[in-house]
UniProtKB/TrEMBL annotation:
This is DUF3048 domain-containing protein. It comes from Thermomonospora echinospora. The lineage of its organism: Bacteria, Bacillati, Actinomycetota, Actinomycetes, Streptosporangiales. Keywords: Signal. Residues 31-43 have a biased composition (Pro residues). Residues 28-51 are annotated as: Disordered. Residues 58-186, 215-323 form the DUF3048 domain.
Length: 334
């Protein structure tokens, strides 16, 4: 584990210095066609479609890529997110994509670079603002064509700043309010398929679960006192820079097919593609219970629905939702 983590950290550091990346064959999803700017419309649901609450129903949507390796911990701003995605990247490590709407933190980061899987995940959000620190140069045309408002380090100006004693690239942060000022037409929250409400029948009492990738683990343990799942990173308590422990009221372990993209980093590690359109199995953790579930997403511009084993809607607990994407099958070779 120590070797894999060091290798991944070295990869990230080299990429931050702007070294060129090479390509190889693969089955990248087709880039989204250029889209007209949609008219923002609020969700018809009686609650915020991201967290089941009542706040921020007409607030714009902002997604931010955040480093998730040990040199970047503790992270800032993750506790304020409505939804947190955990995605596998090169070297078998993981990276977060935090989605904000109901509220914004004062600071978020360390902000890191985007990946090809992000664009497919974000299509269900309409046209959100998307913050990141950079991309593989060969991937940049797809970013430009995607239905997002780019507020990257390249375009975000003073919204980004260096903070703290960590070395580059682990010290880049951003002010979410300033990011959204750069994207005044960012879309409003829309129905992305989540349903919130009382727990369904059929759950199994569960203390916790550990998600695994080739070079990383994240655990989630139920806290009856806090009424949410508290996370660990590599077996250690995953604290937040603002204090407390990261975690959410609902944790979704979503099993999705992963394949190699045509992109590789300078050490030869492949960038995996997470196929978030389609269907598959899931494990949903809420209220100290676990539920075997199914997920389905018919197309990139549609939301992801979750159902119980008997086909009924899988309701989430109101509060922060983590979507933990793990490979459905053998691990993708880094």
């Amino acid at each position: 584990m120590r070797f894999a983590t060091s290798r991944a950290a070295a990869t990230l550091g080299i990429c931050a210095l702007g070294a060129g990346l090479t390509a190889c064959s693969g089955d990248d999803p087709k880039p989204p066609a250029p889209a007209a700017t949609p008219t923002p419309t609020p969700s018809a649901l009686p609650y915020h479609p991201f967290d089941g609450g009542r706040d921020g129903l007409r607030n714009p949507v902002l997604a931010v890529k955040i480093e998730n390796t040990r040199p970047a911990l503790p992270q800032s701003g993750v506790r304020a997110a409505d939804i947190v995605y955990v995605e596998q990247v090169e070297g078998g490590e993981t990276r977060l994509m935090a989605v904000y709407s109901s509220k914004l933190p004062k600071r978020v980061g360390p902000v890191r670079s985007a990946r090809i899987s992000d664009l497919e995940i974000l299509r269900q959000y309409g046209r959100p603002a998307f913050a990141f620190s950079g991309v593989n140069p060969e991937f940049k045309p797809q970013i430009r064509r995607a239905p997002i408002y780019e507020v990257s380090q390249e375009t975000g100006g003073s919204a980004y700043y260096r903070h703290g004693p960590r070395p580059i690239p682990y010290n880049l942060y951003a002010d979410p309010k300033d990011l959204l000022k750069k994207a005044p037409r960012a879309g409003l929250p829309r129905d992305i398929g989540f349903r919130f409400g009382p727990p369904p029948a059929g759950g199994k009492p569960t203390d916790g679960y550990t998600a695994r990738w080739p070079a990383a683990t994240m655990g989630f343990t139920w806290s009856a006192k806090e009424k949410r799942w508290l996370s660990t990173h590599g077996g250690r308590t995953n604290t937040a820079a603002e204090g407390g422990v990261l975690g959410g009221e609902t944790i979704v372990i979503q099993y999705a097919k992963m394949t190699r993209s045509r992109f590789r980093d300078v050490l030869g590690a492949y960038t995996p593609i997470i196929h978030s359109v389609g269907s598959g199995r899931a494990l949903v953790l809420r209220d100290g219970m676990s539920y075997d579930a199914r997920w389905a997403r018919p197309s990139a511009d549609k939301g992801t629905t979750f159902t119980t084993a008997d086909g009924k809607p899988m309701t989430f607990a109101p509060g922060q939702v983590w979507i933990v994407l793990v490979n459905d099958g053998k691990p993708v070779i880094p």
